[in-house]
Design brief:
about 20% strand, six-stranded mixed sheet, two-stranded antiparallel sheet, alpha+beta
Length: about 210
């Protein structure tokens, strides 16, 4: 006489335990998602603009973003006779470099003039020296300046003054920040808190 086999179903609780254990094993095999850095500035990581720069400095040497790899680049467009925004931004970057201590050498300020007619190489060099010996000033001709501003979505427009040479320039007031790999990461509006800008730079230096 054949003996009937008892096919006992797996208890529901046991099944649940098996499923949970399998899910836990699968999660353990996957690397955890990298947390997003809490930037204070406007995160533009992956932007299709502001990625390529090639302009001569005040010594006539053509500079590019690639040569600053390993540093956080703070890129600003302005002009020497700017009454407030430009000198304030450069002075702020100089202060941050000092506050960073040894890491200050890894912060590279770059200033692009939108006023090549008045900002001669000599004028630009003297202006940048006011803030630091490693501050880089770039100056193209009128066509290069227009093309570069367009590529970086920078607006600038001359405002007539009392004389032909006493004009001012309205321009986008903000700083692009690049990480040590040379990737554009942030746009920081003028007027942001210095401590917020410092915090963002420290995050990018990590």
């Amino acid at each position: 006489r054949r003996q009937r086999r008892n096919h006992m179903p797996v208890p529901t609780q046991s099944r649940r335990t098996i499923v949970i254990a399998a899910a836990a094993a699968a999660l353990a095999a996957c690397p955890p998602a990298e947390p997003q850095a809490p930037f204070k500035g406007i995160d533009i990581t992956g932007a299709a603009y502001a990625n390529a720069l090639s302009l001569p400095d005040f010594d006539g040497r053509v500079r590019t973003l690639a040569e600053f790899k390993g540093k956080v680049v703070a890129l600003f467009f302005g002009y020497v006779q700017c009454p407030d925004v430009c000198p304030t931004t450069m002075a702020e970057l100089a202060l941050i470099k000092k506050q960073l201590g040894a890491d200050g050498a890894r912060l590279q300020p770059v200033f692009v003039t939108v006023d090549p007619e008045r900002d001669t190489p000599e004028v630009l060099k003297a202006y940048m020296a006011n803030f630091g010996t490693d501050f880089v000033g770039l100056r193209g001709d009128n066509e290069q300046t227009k093309a570069t501003a367009l590529a970086f979505k920078i607006f600038y427009s001359r405002v007539r003054g009392a004389t032909p040479t006493s004009y001012t320039i309205d321009h986008t007031a903000g700083t692009y920040l690049y990480d040590p790999e040379g990737r554009v990461r942030l746009f920081v509006r003028y007027g942001s808190k210095t401590e917020d800008l410092t915090a963002d730079i420290k995050l990018l230096l990590r």
